[in-house]
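Same chain as my last thread, 285 residues:
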Amino acid sequence: MAHSSVVIKEWETLNNYLSEEESTVTLNGKDLSLGALVVVSGQLLNRDVVPKIPLRGSISASGDLSPLSYVAGTIQGKSTIGVRYGSERGIYSEMTAGKALAEAKILPVTLTAKEGLAIVNGNAVSAGVAALALWETHNLAIMSQLLTAMAVEALSGTDENFDPAFGRVRPHPGQIDCLNNIHRFLEGSKLIHHNDGDNDALRQDRYSIRTASQWLGPVLEDFLLAHQQMHIEMNSVTDNPISTPTVIEFCTVGISRPRLLHQRLKRYGSLSKQLDACYSSNARK
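reply #2:
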């Protein structure tokens, strides 16, 4: 079972622009009329109608064709498509797409030329799962810095290892962020001190502690790059062919971006495993 906010990225993007009752959207300073497909997609998201998508069925090569076909079936109110409908917050019922749309007072869409292809020709499911993994990874990155600060306190260490001055003379972006974060975590702590070598104390903290920002910094930079790529991907057009709004012109293109993201994240095994685990966990939800 996939959550509606990550099943199809177009829905999430649209939700940034329109309320349920709007039929126009302002884009690049121009008012554009929205078709029924766009409006109903936003209504499904806002009214918590979630299509039930099988765990297996997509290799994310030239689009998540099979998973997104269930989204297309939900939009049309097909009786052969199962959904989970949240009529009340936190209370869900499983039923057919047609029944859910009727209860949610959403009119099903009859697809016209090219609309069906526009829905299924994309990598929305893969991008959504990757976005969840990135969210969890960002939280783990923060936690790793917090635990480093706690380790400094537990070992009666010093906060001078994380002085922002190191970032000014060696300005790697990830290291600067890590230095600033851990330094703020330790601010005001009564469990740390400045080592001066007296009383047989270590002049420097243990290597694994005092160099933490240099280990974690490059990881943060890779996570930030992955985040930037996902932000672009989740707000992009993946239709094929695409048409320009000013000139009658059609262009064909291949969709295979998720693989590049997965390869980049694979440098850090834990995140790669999270991506795989998300597929499994979605099936159990």
